[in-house]
């Protein structure tokens, strides 16, 4: 199953392990090449270690070519069922199932008629809760898959503790796609691969599923999103911007483009949260990329992007650890991130370095009248300190902390 020279992504294994042999379909979703197939390989190894006979582990990768040749949900059901030769439990590891139209019906039939434990992966909206709830309602769990965290990046690159700050600077430029981390490529080659990957995602997960007539306008919307990651804006503001560039586009079209990019896990939405009213606001969202390297592949690296890169990295780390992440609104003050997980809440301001007058970063957090943990995350080690209970921490230390 798993190649010996690859590194176990332990957090995913720890997350999924309690659900092994639980009668729920485990659905691993995330942007293409984030390592979903790799997670299936890890699961295969875990099953073998637990004494499952290899003949009862069925791995299957579905391809678009098969679908073009007429492979259907019925073919999927028959093929997998025919591989089960006895009444013992079989473990189905099914990769990129979204390529099969109405795949969830085949999975549902297998789930109901066979002794199976099912794990599937996919990289677009056909594996989101809205799409699958009618057939698998209450019988599935979504497992979000992200590109490598900084901690995982260190393991993949075999980087020790001698120069973590330099490793972080490298991470901000190369990003977290596992393929990049295990390759010894320069920056130019890395961005070439990421650019090819981006266009593959756009072609397979956006253009092939949605009617986009004006590709040039679509690309402009994508570039606007990438260039403004971490800033609040709306579909209407993008439409007005493009109109100023002599590119007429409807607000509805912009909204659809954003939705389709979210469905393909290229971008993530970050809603605003009213800390006083304890409610989610539906306007002026922020968006972050599934991997920062996607932006560099389009625009190239620019040190002026450091602030938005920092925010993007913090956002993804919060998501990896299972937090619901929001932009905080406290009266007329904005908090970069309010992160919630069950009864746990943390509040974060992000800054490349604390200015001489650090009022915004500190006072915005101090004004929140609660006992939740509060952090200012910086890239400048000279800023590290505690100010009235607010911890100013370096980004490397923040990313490597076991608990916040």
In words, what does this structure look like?
The structure is a single chain. The protein is α/β, with parallel strands linked by helices and 404 residues long. It has 2 domains: 10-144, P-loop containing nucleotide triphosphate hydrolases (Rossmann fold, 3-Layer(aba) Sandwich); 150-400, no CATH class. It contains 17 helices and 13 strands. Strands 7-6-8-9-10-11-13-12 form an 8-stranded mixed sheet, with helices on both faces. It has a 5-stranded parallel sheet with strand order 2-3-4-1-5, sandwiched between helices. Strand 3, helix 5 (103-113) and strand 4 form a beta-alpha-beta unit. It starts with 9 loop residues before the first helix and ends with a helix. The mean pLDDT is 91.
Quick structural overview:
With 404 residues, this protein is an alpha/beta fold. 42% of the residues lie in helices and 21% in strands.
Main beta sheet: strand number and arrangement? 8 strands, mixed
What structural category arises from helix and sheet content? alpha/beta
In which order are the strands of the major sheet placed? 7-6-8-9-10-11-13-12
| DSSP, total strands | 13
Please count the helical segments. Answer: 17
Distance between the termini: 35 Å
Keywords:
globular, eight-stranded mixed sheet, five-stranded parallel sheet, 17 helices, 404 residues, alpha/beta, Rossmann fold, 2 domains
Detail the topology: elements first, then pairings.
Layout: H1 10-16, E1 25-29, H2 36-49, E2 57-61, H3 64-68, H4 73-82, E3 90-95, H5 103-113, E4 116-122, H6 129-136, E5 140-144, H7 150-157, H8 164-174, H9 178-181, H10 187-207, H11 215-227, H12 235-244, H13 251-263, E6 267-274, E7 279-289, H14 293-299, H15 306-320, E8 324-330, E9 333-341, E10 344-351, H16 359-366, E11 373-378, E12 385-387, E13 390-394, H17 395-400
Parallel strand pairs: 1-4, 1-5, 2-3, 3-4, 6-8, 10-11, 11-13
Antiparallel strand pairs: 6-7, 8-9, 9-10, 12-13
Helix pairs in contact: 4-5, 10-14, 12-13
